[in-house]
Amino acid sequence: MSDLTDATGLSKGSIYGNFENKEEVALAVFDFNAAKISTQVRTKIDAALTYHDKLLVYSKVYRSMLKGVLSAGGCPILNTATEADDTNNQLKDRAAKAVLKWEKNLCELMEKGIQAGELRKDIAIRQTALSVIALIEGGLMIAKVTNDPTAMDKVLKTVESIIESLQAVQ
Fold first, then answer.
1. pLDDT digits (tens, 9 = 90+) for 88-104
2. Higher pLDDT, 117 or 146
3. What CA–CA distance (Å, rounded) separates 37 from 76?
4. Which region holds residue 147: left if phi is over 0, alpha if psi is between -120 and 50, else beta?
5. Domain 29-165 has what CATH class?
6. What is the crossing angle of helices 51-66 and 125-146, to 10°?
């Protein structure tokens, strides 16, 4: 709570006037930060013209994360998954739902891309979606613990190569 009061300038009383306990605060913080990423992703996906470009949005958004555009604290999914895995089931469930939503979005984009003839028909859709998520989250973790943002850039280049390989041959 001390970190929160220092960061916000609010008193503990102000915080607890709006939240019943620390767990509710943690859930609200997760929801707020996850919504920031989700909004960025959705806006850029809606603006992209091809399914290939829509898939590349995730790489672009997470690359911007390293530059501090979204959050100096890192990815809320990664942070929550590592911090709350066995200590706070509500937070763990929120992180799980976020990952499952991300997986679903990637799968839907690939399915629509296949239907539109933009992506190969033989894609292992779920495997690819899970691999992209694992690479991005793992890249963030490596960059964060080693304090080496170039590690994330290298991982994102791999994500982009995977997405490039999904394109249908024209």
1. 788 888 888 999 999 99
2. 117
3. 9
4. left
5. mainly alpha
6. 10
Both structure tokens of 64: 């911007």
Q: What angle do CA 170, 42, 95 make, to 5 degrees?
A: 110
Give the C-alpha separation, 22 to 5, whole Å. Answer: 12
Which residue bears the tokens 């694992």? 134
DSSP string, 2-61: HHHHHHH---HHHHHHH-SSHHHHHHHHHHHHHHHHHHHHHHHHHH-SSHHHHHHHHHHH
- N-to-C CA span, the chain: 56
- The single residue listed with the structure tokens 């033989």 is 122
Backbone angles phi, psi at 111, to 5 degrees: -60, -45
Contact present, 71 and 65 (Cβ < 8 Å): yes
Taking residue 17's Cβ as centre, other Cβ atoms within 10 Å add up to 9
What letter does residue 70 receive in the DSSP assignment?
A: S
pLDDT tens digits along 34-85:
888 899 999 999 999 999 999 999 999 988 877 664 445 667 777 676 676 6
3-state secondary structure of 10: coil
**Extents of the domains making up the chain:** 29-165
Residue 36 identity: K
